[in-house]
């Protein structure tokens, strides 16, 4: 696994190889998404960053900070409540009007929901944020990701390595919902979808990351300001700062360590920032080195539960999950 020093060294050379980069951050107006967007803005000479979020005040603040950090960059805010899939479609349409290609799609929406809440579209709110909305962004933006002049990457920040047992008749959690099930199902569906998508689109890297315990606003929003502050203090010795989290995520988003499946054997420069001393190409969730689908811990290390994922793969769960997802889109939106 790359050390923090190796991460910073790689990020420090990013600008020399990538003068421009187009990135979309879904959930980019706070926490991990915001921190990673800021690292990208500092590292790339002429970045284009689209932040998708609900809060226009937070969006405006971050845009000002990004412009101050890099006056040569282009930054925009797309206001959208992506707990509704129809809003995801509108946000994607707005992005497609502005861009011909996308190099990075980074998604970190969702929270720790202690109770079930359904949306007007008939889906569980947080399950949409942590799974369905993310997959709809991918599906809608695939043409732009495929058009990237360098291999694009899709990163979903949630629960890489935290997968568990799920039932195929309860993918949408409509038959049974508990807090533990909601977290397990979201993590597992993301990992299975990553495998399916990497196989179907071998020119793109698909990565599911567990971010670790990060000192972010999520604690306050979940447990309340007082309890969240106390937990933040108690967890400080073994948690990550937002800055370090952003640095590590930028490495995962740009290093040649995570190539797409279709570029096996290519030179580092063709797939990302050249590997530094001591850093090697990652092993994909399928067990293949450089296989295109990656389940990672926060340090960028392989976190795949190999036995569990092999069992799911043997029962065609990656395909079943994606067929269910496409059917859900048809049912809710009337189209794929």
UniProtKB/TrEMBL annotation:
UniProt KW keywords: Oxidoreductase
Domain of life: Eukaryota
Pfam families: adh_short
InterPro entries in the cross-refs: NAD(P)-bd_dom_sf (IPR036291), SDR_fam (IPR002347), Sec_Metab_Biosynth_Oxidored (IPR052228)
Database matches in SUPFAM superfamilies: NAD(P)-binding Rossmann-fold domains
GO molecular function: oxidoreductase activity
Name the UniProt record assigns to this protein: Short-chain dehydrogenases/reductase
Lineage: Eukaryota, Fungi, Dikarya, Ascomycota, Pezizomycotina
